[in-house]
Amino acid sequence: MEMEELRDLYVDQLRDLYSAENQLVKALPKMAKAATDEQLKSAFLEHLEETKGHVERLTKIFDKLGAKPGGKKCKAMEGLVEEGKEMIEEDAEPEVMDAGLIAAGQRVEHYEIAGYGTVRAYAKLLGDDSAAKLLDETLQEEGSADKKLTKLAESVINLQAAGHSS
């Protein structure tokens, strides 16, 4: 794709996020299945439903732009998903596995927060207020998912992994 102006970069970055979200739709059920803590399973499954909504929002933005969402593979998310898969394949105690899954999940969230913050800024600059609003909704949900994982880690799971009771 030739990039001559900010709009071209904006569409390219949206395609990257579209690929990332679709990869997550496939990865989150595996993470939920590997989790032993019920709250963590629930957090991954709740975020799966949000992630499906993120794909829908991106599709709306592409429709409005008259652009196709496909054609790009998010290599960063591919790597993050692979790291999560490696964690799942580890021979780890259940509490340690859960702590590792949280770490993998938070890496994903931080990547998405960076990506959505960037495209929201581009949308605002390009005067695409409706897209900026949709992107901001997703950005807020990604931030909430990250905070939920932090709370689970700090209040229960990391303590259990360290050998303490909750």
Q: Care to describe what's here?
A:
The chain is built from 5 helices and no strands. The termini are far apart. The longest helix has 33 residues. The chain has a single domain, classed as Up-down Bundle (Ferritin). The mean pLDDT is 95. It is mostly helical and 166 residues long.
The SSE string, one letter per element, is: HHHHH
For the record, the count of structural domains works out to 1
Unreliable sequence segments: none
Query: What does the largest sheet look like?
Result: none
Q: Indicate the CATH architecture.
A: Up-down Bundle
Q: Ends: how far apart? A: 52 Å
Q: Care to count the β-strands?
A: 0
CATH topology: the name is Ferritin
Percent strand: under 5%
**Helical amount among residues, as a percent range?**
over 70%
Q: Rg from C-alpha positions?
A: 17 Å
Helix count from the secondary structure assignment: 5
Features:
Ferritin; 166 residues; 5 helices; 83% helix; elongated; 0% strand; mainly alpha; single chain
Protein topology:
Elements: H1 6-34, H2 38-65, H3 75-89, H4 94-125, H5 129-161
Helix pairs in contact: 1-2, 1-3, 1-4, 2-5, 3-4, 4-5
